[in-house]
Design a protein that fits this description.
Elements (H helix, E strand, L loop, with lengths): L1 E5 L2 E8 L4 H14 L2 E12 L1 H16 L3 E5 L3 H9 L8 E2 L4
Parallel strand pairs: 2-3, 3-4, 4-5
Antiparallel strand pairs: 1-2
Helix pairs in contact: 1-2
């Protein structure tokens, strides 16, 4: 898992799974401490598991409690499908548009 920062955007690439959840969680928390609005770009994510998606959902809920805003951008069809199957789509905000 590679995690890059571009202003308020965190760009994730590689496998988003149980092995990378601690690093992703820490990066999101640090980013939310610096930016009131954070976008997590998932366009480079090759695979994902439910554990990692739960980290994204928990970060979304925490950001709302803290008065911040977090959204996911450009998830692949497979990631979107898993969000729906796990019902986590109800928790996270997903921006499927370009930008």
């Amino acid at each position: 898992m590679e995690i890059m920062s571009d202003g308020p955007v965190l760009v994730l690439s590689g496998d988003l799974d149980v092995r990378s959840t601690m690093r992703v969680r820490s990066a999101i928390q640090e980013h939310l401490a610096s930016h009131p609005e954070v976008v997590i770009d998932l366009s480079g994510v090759d695979s994902v598991d439910v554990t990692a998606l739960r980290v994204l959902a928990a970060a979304t809920l925490q950001s709302v409690r803290d008065g911040h805003h977090l959204r996911l951008r450009h998830p692949s069809p497979a990631v979107t499908r898993l969000l729906h199957l796990s019902h986590l789509i109800r928790v996270v905000e997903v921006d499927r548009g370009v930008g």
